[in-house]
Write a structure and sequence with these properties.
With 282 residues, this protein is an alpha/beta fold. It has helices at 7-16, 28-41, 51-54, 59-71, 87-95, 110-126, 157-167, 191-200, 215-224, 233-247, 254-276; strands spanning 20-24, 45-50, 77-84, 100-103, 130-135, 171-174, 205-207, 226-231. An 8-stranded parallel β-barrel has the order 1-2-3-4-5-6-7-8, surrounded by 10 helices. Helix 8 links the parallel strand 6 and strand 7 (205-207). The chain is globular, with a radius of gyration of 18 Å.
Length: 282
């Protein structure tokens, strides 16, 4: 199956209350591990390319490789720019055949976020791609005590309807106590806020910052209305741990060591499909 926009799968996930993961990949080893898991679990998946990596010269070739590997499967796979840094970057990734893009204007004033998101939506929809935007701001876990833990950056439910109507965005990332990377302190998710926002708009809602949350927190967020969960740091850390452990063995080869990336993706993604309810959806 060729790469597809995740729009239809997300509509189904919202209706049936499960979540489709976005896993950021950085190379072929990670992508192969992700494929092992998504094929075994028959789980629709979004492959994320994080904005700074999308800016590297090899991104076009990486996208072509992911296209080719998706053709070898019969499970829906989307290729999405994660945290698109500018309108221009989103347009460039659409020209590389990305099937979905996130434009991240969450640090901008509302009017500017709306205007830029609208431009991305217009270009993306012209080629059948979906667009995610962020309203409110999901910060970093190492600043959790002073930001997310204090409700700073939380999505204002009163601006959600206007944002969705004026931008035409397909998926909306919201801030409700989630944060990127490892949390400093205990993460507390405001699931009432999620449910309230779900009640106001029909677009599927997105939670960034999956690392550090418990299975129970994932299930609670999905029950409250989250339909897409972004996840990266724990997989990257597991890959690094695997490689360090293998490299410490005197006779380990380059192949043994780099296989630690594939193994980490295969294990983590496979387990998370079960928690998110994505397994057997294709
Ligand atoms: P984590 O690294 O916290 O899992 O978050 C990833 C993410 O949200 C990517 O957009």
């Amino acid at each position: 199956m060729t790469l597809v926009s995740i729009k239809n799968e997300m509509t189904k996930a919202r209706r049936e209350r499960y979540a489709i993961p976005l896993f950021d990949v950085f190379d072929m080893q990670g992508m192969e591990g992700l494929l092992d898991a998504l094929i075994a679990k028959r789980a629709p998946t979004i492959v994320g390319i994080y904005s700074p990596f999308a800016a590297l010269p090899n991104c076009h070739a990486l996208a072509a490789y992911i296209h080719s590997r998706a053709d070898d499967t019969d499970v829906p796979i989307s290729l999405m720019l994660d945290h698109g840094a500018s309108v221009e970057q989103c347009l460039e990734m659409l020209s590389f055949g990305f099937t979905d893009v996130m434009y991240d204007g969450s640090k901008l004033p509302l009017e500017e976020n709306i205007a830029n998101t609208r431009q991305v939506v217009s270009a993306a929809h012209a080629v059948g791609a979906g667009v995610e935007a962020e309203l409110g701001h999901v910060g970093m876990g190492d600043q959790y005590d002073s930001l997310g833990g204090q409700r700073i950056g939380f999505t204002d439910p009163d601006s959600v309807v206007r944002f969705v109507e004026e931008t035409g965005v397909d998926f909306l990332a919201i801030a409700f106590g989630n944060a990127h990377g490892l949390y400093k302190g205990e993460p507390h998710l405001d699931l009432e806020l999620v449910a309230e926002i779900r009640g106001r708009v029909t677009v599927p809602l997105v939670m960034h910052g999956g690392t550090g949350l418990s299975d129970e927190q994932f299930r609670g967020a999905i029950a409250a209305g989250i339909s897409k969960i972004n996840f990266a740091t724990s997989i990257m850390n597991a890959a690094a741990d695997n490689m360090r452990a293998t490299a410490a063995k005197p006779d380990s080869t380059m192949f043994d060591i780099s296989d630690g990336i594939r193994a980490a993706y295969s294990k983590w993604c496979g387990d998370l499909y079960e928690v998110f309810g994505t397994a057997s959806r294709s």
